[in-house]
Structures
1.
Amino acid sequence: MKAVIQRVAEASVTVGGARISSIGPGLCVLLGINVDDTEKETEYMVRKILNLRLFEDGSGSGRAWSCSVVDRDLEVLLVSQFTLQAVLKGNKPDFHQAMPAQRAEPFYNRVLEEMRSKYRPDRVKDGKFGAHMQLQIQNDGPVTIELSSPAGPGDPRLQSKQEKQQQRKDKSRSKGPAESGDKGSRPDPGTSSGAEGQVSSEREA
């Protein structure tokens, strides 16, 4: 799961010319759901988003990066953004890593419910899943944070990466001196280097 989190003075969502959601100061979160995401990723992302310290202390001390959106009792606008899962093939984006819409919509709704249950329902707004939306965002700072859920031990993405790394290691190991074509560089089994001779004589002694 990926998110782009912006600290905003205000933000709103418009669909078909009608404004459907708006917030004052707080966070605008664009959320991209991966095809392999689970409840584990949901819990991680919700916890991190609500606890990110992106705001000054509200007491007027001017201390930056000391308060979360929850600490300041501010609002969150959460908007589904499947294009965050894009993979470029040349100049064309490919979205095979994004969760299909029929699965992503209920999954997104669970993320929304989780965030509302961990905070305050009236403080968490959203867009309209699957609709063509216009977002008006007044970034405050500007402050923009990219966040990704960590890959777990059983994550297929991590396993695939590890398998590819192992394949490269296996190929490099299979290329022995015989494949190099330089027979002169191959050591004579009957001889040994000086260092090896010293070790051998030490053992015999």
2.
Amino acid sequence: MSKMVKMMITSLVIILALGAATILFILNLNNKDDKSSAETLDEMVKYAYESPEITTDLLDGSFVRIQFQIITDGKAAQEEISKRDFQLKNILIKELAKLDEEDFKTALGELEEKIKDRLNELMTEGKIIDVYTINKILQ
């Protein structure tokens, strides 16, 4: 065989091997994502903090009783947020005082995001990943 044919066959084998390795890597990556999402859910529950139920007045004079589940990124952050309970209550009262009854029907997600951002400004150990409303009663 000529030198050119040997070089082409070698190049073709290398390209096929790299292609097969890439496909295996991508398939493996997808399987790991499925497992990590289950672990993530377990971690979310493990490192969650349930805020105390808070009752406060709103901008339009109505009242709300609300409670949040705060998801942290680890045990240190979970312990810190439980120590910052008084600051959490303060943030909630201030943010809720700006809202009226209609805001709870249309902008609850925005409230959760604001609370998350405000808490992350205070955190020194870890961070807040997400905030979920778990109890809400308007009066």
3.
Amino acid sequence: MALLKRSQPARDPEGRMPLMEHLRELRNRLVIALAAVIVGIIIGYIFFDPVWAFVKEPFCETPQANQLRPGECTLTYSGIFQSFFITLKVSLMIGLVVASPVWLYQIWAFVTPALYRNEKRYSLTFLGIAVPLFVLGAALAYIIMDTSLSILLSFSLDGTVATIGIDEYIDYVLIMLLIFGISFELPLILVFLNIIGVLSHTTVKKHRRTVIFVMFVFGAVVTPGGDPLTMMALAAPMIVLYFLAELVMFLRERSAPAGEDFSHLSDDEASPLAEDTSPVDAPTPLDEEPPGTTSGADKR
């Protein structure tokens, strides 16, 4: 019976495995992540009504929400299956959030064997900071969303009625949440680049004004509608987080072990070389012959 049992290969402590083993592991982790998302979608469908009321609240705060039915917040849809797909989309949003610990862990467990010990420590730290930053950005987007919608809808012409479709509104909410959440991660990326040695604090300080200007341009371009309130609400926290990232980079480089600093040199300037005080005509190791050997002249 022992001969019929398949021997399990010893696990490499460094996480190395053949290509087929990598593919099998990837398949298994994808199946687990997909199963978790499906369970989350079911949970999202069960709790659809309170979540939809929460998502719809910013629009209901605008005056245009009561134009079709006075005293009642109304959104429209224009297809037989559209309401079903909207329900499925919202349930998918809830499912991704509910199942995020599972699929994030599956990604982490698949990538971990390829990382060094210090990289694992840094990645766990950054993951623990990135999630609250994303949530903070999304929460800020939700808070200002009603004011932003009021500004955008205030440009409606006289004699017109705003009939906002459900799908259009859901897309607007998703874009706002994603843009604000991802934008709050940019300062964290700067700190990460500084830790791995790609970006120095001197470089960040040198281009500070340009970066602040680019943040305002970025806020004006990526926000839906481009109204000034949304642009300022996105650019101002990003600037604050940028200064915090710069402070972290400064403190980190200040506390780093002392060594040669070439940050003041330009890209085209050569770094200083070590001074060699040996004579020019001093013999090199290749010129010296081992003891007991005869030179070419003695052989002749």
